[in-house]
Amino acid sequence: MSSSSALNDPEYRTPGRSSGLFSLFRQRYLLSLLMRKGTATRYYGSALGWVWSYIRPAAQFLMYFLVIGVILGQNRGIELFPIYLFSGIVAVNLFSEVLRNTTSALVDNKSLIKKIFMPRELFPVAAVGVGFIHFLPQALLLLVVALFFGWTLGWLQVVAFLGGIVLILTFSLGLGLFFGSINVAFRDAKNIVDIILMFSTWASPVLYGWDMVYQRAPEWLYHLYMVNPMTSAVELFHDAFWLPLSPDSPRPPDLGTHVLISFGIAIFTLVIGQLVFRKLEGSFAQRL
């Protein structure tokens, strides 16, 4: 093929050009390779391997249950508090895993970024996939515990569960694109993310009920609290696993409206994260 005909070929792409997240549809094989690499190396050299994906959430649950549930009395204030607590922990762990992975994805793959061109979004998106894969054992453990307490499957539970996952992945990917691109030049971004993750468990109804905020906070602060994407995601996880076992428990007023606003915030975060990422990606190879 001559050079002139190559330039007119619809499959021809100028080297270095990318369509952002949309370009990943043409790079599915590379994305799968990066996900397999991230999954295979997660517990490389570990004697227990994937067993840690069960031990960590179980140990986290035990610590919070003893301190918050037994010593501080939330076990008496919230019906079936173990399911309530574990549902929230699983949701927050997914957010923490994905945000931490996406923030460090570019730095962790600097050898590839400096040598060859590929859409840079491949790395944070692959990190999202790896985080989701490592979330599945925790979700399975939650399902087993819920079944032990008499949980039954229903389409509303499935919709709430999947909605919570999509909300968390969208929000965390947006934040990960933003902080990950900044982290290339300023490693302080990773420390900011660590602070966000430190607050994430307490800024959503994981260790306490939403009604504590409703009763004690000003109305504007309560609504601000409820449209936090992680608050809505945790409540969706509660709807999926805890509410069917505690049908008489009160639910937050206007939860549907808050969830829709949370999705809007998550999508807005994703758009801003992508714009910042595209703005800075030209200097990734040099700065790394």
UniProtKB/TrEMBL annotation:
A matching Pfam family: ABC2_membrane
GO BP field: lipopolysaccharide transport
InterPro entries in alphabetical order: ABC2_TM, ABC2_TM_bact-type
Subcellular location: Cell inner membrane; Cell membrane
Entry's Gene Ontology cellular component terms: plasma membrane
Record field: transmembrane: 43-71, 83-101, 122-149, 155-180, 192-210, 255-277
Keywords from the UniProt entry: Cell inner membrane, Cell membrane, Membrane, Transmembrane, Transmembrane helix, Transport
Topology of the protein relative to the lipid bilayer: Multi-pass membrane protein
Main location (coarse class): membrane
Domain ABC transmembrane type-2, first and last residues per copy: 48-280
Record-level Gene Ontology MF annotations: ABC-type transporter activity
PANTHER family associated with the record: INNER MEMBRANE TRANSPORT PERMEASE (PTHR30413), TRANSPORT PERMEASE PROTEIN (PTHR30413:SF8)
Protein family: Belongs to the ABC-2 integral membrane protein family.
Protein name from the UniProt record: Transport permease protein
Native species: Leucobacter tardus
